[in-house]
Each structure stands twice: as C-alpha cells, then as structure tokens.
User: What shape does this take?
Amino acid sequence: MRIAKSGAPWSVILVALKLLTCPLVFAQNRSASTPLAETSAGKLRGETQPGLSVFRGIRYARAPIGNLRFHRAQPVAPWKGIRDALDFAPACPQLVDIDPTENNNSVMDEDCLALNVWTPGVSSANLPVMVFIHGGAFIDGSTRNTWYNGASLARRGKVVVVSLQYRLGAWGFLELAEIGGKEFAESGNLGILDQVAALRWIHENIAAFGGDPQSVTVFGESMGGASLNNLLSMTAAQGLIHKAILESSSAQRVGKSVAQATELARVYMKIAGVTSVAELQKLSMVEMRTAQAKLFDTWFGDSSFGPTWGDIVLPQPALQLWQQGQIPHIPLLLGTNLDEIHFWTQVEDLPIASKPPALLLKQVSSIAGDRAPSIIQTYRASFPDYGEAVVHLATDVLFRLPAIRMAESAARQQPTYMYLFTYRPTSAARDYGAMHSMEIPFVFGVLGQQDVIAVTGRSPGLQKIQDRIQNAWIRFARTGNPNSPGLPPWPRYDETRRATMQLGLDCRVVDDPYSTERGSWTGIPFDGITPSVAQVSALLAENR
Assistant: This one.
C-alpha cells in the first residue's frame, strides 16, 4: 500500500495493519477449531467435519515388525508435542490387487495396528461408544474401506464411533508354539489379541474423545462377528464390552485345532523357504505375501488362517462356551441376511448354485449323516428352483443356524434380540439378493456412495430402511434394547416364540421364520467343531 509523504491518516494505517495480520488471525481461528485429544501416550490433532471431530490412524500399538513379529501387540511409546491423526493407517498386509486409490487395501504396511474415531466433540462427556470390527475371512479387509465411514452413525446418534484394524493371515494367525517354543504360545491368535489391545486402549482413552468407557458396544460383521464370538468368550476382554451386535457372524468357517494350525504353519514355512521362527521374522512383507499367495493356491484354500482352538488364548471353541453360558451376561443383538451365499455366487462367481445333486448329498451327509436326504428335500420343497435351494441350505449351515444356536443359548440368561435382513436390490447389475454384507451400508448410512449404489440400487424405500436400522443400532447401543421409532415392537428372542425382526422394505416381526428349514437341523451340533471348517468350506466352494 502506498502512503503519502505528508503522512497517512490513522484509519489507513489501521487498515494496513489488519491486512498484514490477517494470515495470523486466520491461523489462530483454524487452530482454535482444530480438535485436540490427549491420550495416555500423547496429544493428537484431528479434523473438523460438520457436527463432528474425526481422528484417523491412531496407533494403539507399536508396529509388530522385526523381533515383535509373531508376538502380542506392545503399547506405543509416549511422545511429546502434538501428532496429527488425519489420515487412515495402511491396511494390514494381505493379498489384494495393486490399486493406488486412497482407500484401497493395497495401501498396506505392518505398521497397521490403528483405529479411527468419529465423535460429536472431544468436549462431550459420557457418550455411548460403538466399536466396529471389520470382516474379510481373517485374511483381508481394513478400516480404509469407505463403506465403514462412521460419520453418519456418529452424527445421527450422537455417539462415538470407532473402527479398528488387526493383524491378518500369516501375520495374525500362524501357530508357532510347537515350532518356536513357549515364547510364541499366543501366535495362533494374535489377530484376536490385537482386538483386545484395541479395546483396552479404548477403555483407557475414549473419555478424551467424549466417550463413556463404561458404555461400549462392539459390532462386527462376518469374521468381525466371529471375532466378537471369541472376544465374548475370553477373560482378557471381560469388562471391555458392555453390549454386542453380531452381523452375519461366520462362526462355522473359522477355527482349527493346535495340531491343524501347526501343520498349516509348517507348510507355510516350507513354501517361504525358512526353517525357524527367527528366519520368518527376517522375511520382508513382500516375501511373506508371496508365500501366502502360493499357500492359497494349494489344498488349504482361502480359509487357511483364523483362530486356533486349544491354545492358551482360546482353550476351546467359542460356540461351546456360548452353549455352556460362559459369556458375559450383556445385551445381544444378532442376525443374518436372507441370501448370504449370493455374495459368493454373484461377487466371487463361485458356481455354488449349480452344485451337482450327488455332490450336494455327499457334502451334506458329512454333516448330517443319514438325515441328509430329508434335509435336502426340505429345501427343495421350499425353494423349487434348485439353485436357490442350494443357496439357502448353505446360508443356513454357514450363518443362520449358528446364529440361532447362539441366540438360543444366550436368551436363557440375557436380553437377546434377533433380526433377519431381507432387502433385495431391484436395479443392481446382478442378482445380489439380500447377500452377505448387504446390510453394511444401511448400518453406516453411506447409501449415497456410487460404489454402494451399484450394489443396493436406488429403490425409493432405501432411506427408510437406513433410518430404521441406524435408529435400532443406536438405541441398542444406548439402552441395550433396539426398539426405536419406525419399527413395530421388537420382542426379546426365546426358544418358544423365536420372535425375529425382518429388516427390509417391510419391517415386521415374524415368529420362527423359515421354521421348517430350521427344524430340519434339530439335534445336529453347531458348536464350532461340527460342521468343521473343511465341511463348510467344501459346501461353499467345491463343485466337482
């Protein structure tokens, strides 16, 4: 600004000073609106969104690399100053196609033990907390997935939403106790122990984000639900979970004995070209991924990795402890989707619906013995289309029957609510039906995303379904009871009435839905061992 030699009036000088100091003023305003949270290890800087503060990529444990690989997660080292928590952490190592897009799981690293927080405000106090555990067969998945954006749920419910990551595949579930000694006695269940570590971090730190550490609802989908099965059976997690929501828990596709898991570890090490755990710890992430890819091309298939039963972490299958009543007496909400197996027929293109009848009979006989013919006939009578009969039989074996058995056991001692998600897209490119994972975008409220629309379609009733499901999940997180506006009265589940809320375009309570199919399995164990992983995997994939 040019000033006359004779001297500028004070008003001009003041304007000039204001212009010169504007950047400083803006910086001060921006700093004032930046959310800060002080954790036990140090201060974090988040990001402000409309009505929310968001913190991403918060490490709850050190990077499990070098000598820390194959060991229980260790707390992060304290730091001074303020660390940014603005970006998602890399996904944990897994097998995915290389794609550099920001939210793709191919952005991966072993420094992945992290969580994300969406909160109505760090200055809030004692807000209910909802913690999500992602699925992915214990071999893939991450919180980078845009379907898991917690903003809508946190904003609608005025709750604190957290999502967490845990070690997958060989990094999280390689049973090395017999090979490496007692030092590695927990190695077969490190992925589950990571979840415990994350929950403990939440218990100790969530108050700094406005959350109530005494009101934590954990919800998990697919193997995230199976993880929750295990967490509820573990003494290490007791007191960290106050309510639980299990969505399509894949309890029948997980779990190996120590002997089976040890055999798998030996095969993996042979493929990787190593003979000791020390050599395993020196492999690069790429070398471990390559060995895992070769392993999956052999007879183990994609269900190779998962929890180990019989070690010091999980002494016996979680479903057996459920049936013995040895889980915390907390409120439970659980359910499945009507056409779960369509995920594998439509997304992964497995020819399950065209399984030869003779092979179907052989596979069902391995589970049900001489009752197999009558069971198959029950489904053929209910679903005249042979392919649909196979899809629904497999859906029941892998998902619905285990969920019902869990609900039966739990309902004897604690508030238990059952749902059946029934929405079938009308405009999708494929016949997805109410497939596995279809409920996720309704729970998280992300229906407007293009990749979601490609799956759910654009039915005018979708927003109403989303509102009802979100309200029910939020109300359950607040009170332990999912009854909420827009839904008919939702009774507790019991073995007499078997009241089940059907969630879809028409939300209504149905007593004992598909009772004939359910009844055909009476007396056949669903306990985490029967059917075995091999039996259900064959039913899901083998077609020759």
Remarks:
- The radius of gyration is 25 Å.
- Confidence is low (pLDDT under 50) at residues 1-32, 98-102.
